[in-house]
Specification:
The protein has one helix spanning about 5-30. The protein is mostly helical. Keywords: Membrane, Transmembrane, Transmembrane helix.
């Protein structure tokens, strides 16, 4: 399978995951 688009998708998923983790920690500590 061709994987040129994979790095962009992975970066987007990692960004969304980081945002979700930060939101979870923020809600847990507020």
């Amino acid at each position: 399978m061709p994987d040129p688009p994979m790095p962009a998708v992975f970066a987007l998923a990692a960004k969304a995951f980081d945002v979700a983790v930060v939101a979870l920690i923020f809600t847990a500590f507020s």
